[in-house]
Amino acid sequence: MTESSAHHLRAGGISLVLDCEGDRLPRVLHWGPDLGELGAEDLAHLRLAAAQGPRAAGPDRPVPLALLAEQSAGWMGTPGLTGHRAGADFSTAFTVTGIRRNASTEAAVAETLTITAADRDAALELGLEVQMLVSGLVRMRAAVTNTGPGIFDLHSLDLNLPVPLEADEILDLTGWWGHERIQQRHAFTHGTHLRESRRARELDAAVVMAAGRHGFSWRSGELRAMHVGWSGNTRTYAERMNHAVGMLAGGELLLAGEIRLGASETYQGPWIYYSHGDGLDESAARVHDYLRARPQHPRTARPVQLNVWEAVYFDHDLATLKRLADIAASLGVERYVLDDGWFGSRRDDSSGLGDWVVSPDVWPDGLGPIIDHVHDLGMEFGLWFEPEMVNPDSDLARAHPEWILAARPDRWPPEARHQQVLNLTIPEAYAHVRDQMLAILRTYRIEYLKWDFNRDLIEAGTQSTGQASIHEQTLAAYRLMDELIAAQPGLEIESCSSGGGRIDLGILDRCVRIWASDVTDPLERQRIEAGTSLLLPPEMIGSHVASPISHQTGRTTTIDFRAGTAFFSHMGIEWDLTGASEDELARLGEWIAAHQEHRDLLHTGTVVHGDHPDDAFWLHGVVAKDHREAIYAFASVHSSRHTTPGQVRLPGLEPDRRYRVTQLLTDTAGRARRGSSTAWWDDGLTLTGRALGAVGLQMPNVSPEQQVVLHVTTT
Ligand code: GLA
């Protein structure tokens, strides 16, 4: 095997070896732990090791699975590219026309392999980019060009990486409003486990699909995982055929007729991310490290923010909003976000969406009085928009009903939250919303946008053509964000979609934060944020301290549990502080100060989770990259069958270092109940990372819906 007939990409402890011999699309000889330096003979023998002989009732000369699966190469499962040209060219047979390998100038990218291929009979060209990212994450994307004269009707363009037979269990995510990122597991058997997202939102999407050895956990068990970095419709699937070959595959989900390529037109698919790990923490850390290495990743301290939504909802009253700002500033809050209700006729959710003009009814002197007040208090100001949406009861929808995304002019999609989607693929509609937003951004000093997106895109077509438009709509939304950021340098955008409905790496190319869920109950948040951490690092996850009685669940929790939960993420408050007691405010101030003191560690360290055997308890934390410090939370999420939690292991520490373990902010309520004892939590203890990881330490007997936070420092 010559050097150019195989490519070995290596970074972050991961190898991807691609067999490029001959002119068929590249095949994966290995994706997983780093194989070290490989010579020509090693590569040739790896290829030999992977070669299958003839199999029962199969092709006489089997061709290994390529990055884009093709029937013409003997793949009997889902083909990578489907489509047709007036009923013909239903199956492709690409031959490689060029391979280029480049070191990267981007800090996050180690190497790029660019492969071009053509199917001259079908008159298609394929462009594949395969990148090894510095963190060991692999990402790939594909583009297809119609080189023929007529229309090529593209149905799907999926890429895959193979997974070994050892991977016999699949973990993916699902959920619903307020219950985002529920983890579910299935056996990985023969057949296809397909998760489609057909509403351009991710409340119930796979988001992350992992395949590994049965029982793989946070800390152990080899697994491979993938994510489609796209905010429109997606396909994510695990497929295994009866000849023992399996894969994780996916791409954009295209609706019928959505991509009809004319002569020389190209469809560009989204980046698909692939991670490998010994345990979910390691796989997630590769994604976090990649995100943190990108130039647009937020590098300034994440400002503690107050969002007024749960404090006032649509009831905008300047005096109350100023009082909230005063209290927030006195607690150390650094950013104030005015949520829904400031514009048009938007006094509730039934009207006004789409009219991005300050309401003279509620803001007779404009937003200046609140914005100036917030700035005078030393805080940044943020403002809520939902730019892609419109209430039918709005000036905009009345003036331009043809700007609503709909399959037909006379059949709009069923309303959801009394709203429809504005068709941003219509240049005039796009320009209208952009200019209204820019007018606000140029009139006022606004540092931050909360960008909401509160309904599913269903039957989302362009009325004049009847063509499905989710692909183009998604690109237009990206373009709008990019334009606003370019026009207002330094502007930060938060991605919200009925809570955590839009958290993919496509939107996060331009957003610095996601609102993980509308549910601010800390008990629910413990689980939601754990699932979200499979993709996102804590500094991108918005987490707010809400009122003692949760507005969503009715559950009552202590200030320590609420604040100690938000403490780990991009911390904020969403609570009518004018009704809070002096004690609650004082304690909240202490948590904010603690967050500000430790956020550098929390927002740059490695996220870890415990595999504690009693599921009544939940341990997670962040360990500094240099292993000199860590912070853990140990929470009780429901009643245990044991009278004590037992000894709990602290993961991620350096074995030979000695660490001092203390409580970060003593859980005063819990302490009174537990009484004093000889246990370590009164005065702390000192042990090696090895002992803390292998033996663990007895935890205070926290009751359900309480937690202790541990601070671990090098002695
Ligand atoms: C959505 C968001 C909330 C809030 C409301 C405002 O539900 O998820 O955080 O902004 O919209 O209408």
TrEMBL record:
Keyword field: Glycosidase, Hydrolase
Name of the molecule in the record: Alpha-galactosidase
Xref: InterPro entries: Aldolase_TIM (IPR013785), Alpga-gal_N_sf (IPR038417), Alpha-glycosidase_related (IPR050985), GH (IPR017853), Glyco_hydro_27/36_CS (IPR000111), Glyco_hydro_36 (IPR002252), Glyco_hydro_36_C (IPR031705), Glyco_hydro_36_N (IPR031704)
GO MF annotation, one: alpha-galactosidase activity
Family the UniProt entry places it in: Belongs to the glycosyl hydrolase.
Domain Glycosyl hydrolase family 36 N-terminal: 25-261
EC identifiers of the protein: 3.2.1.22
Taxonomy, superkingdom: Bacteria
CDD domains: GH36 (cd14791)
Pfam families: Glyco_hydro_36C, Glyco_hydro_36N, Melibiase
Ranges where the Glycosyl hydrolase family 36 C-terminal domain occurs: 622-701
Catalytic activity annotation: Hydrolysis of terminal, non-reducing alpha-D-galactose residues in alpha-D-galactosides, including galactose oligosaccharides, galactomannans and galactolipids
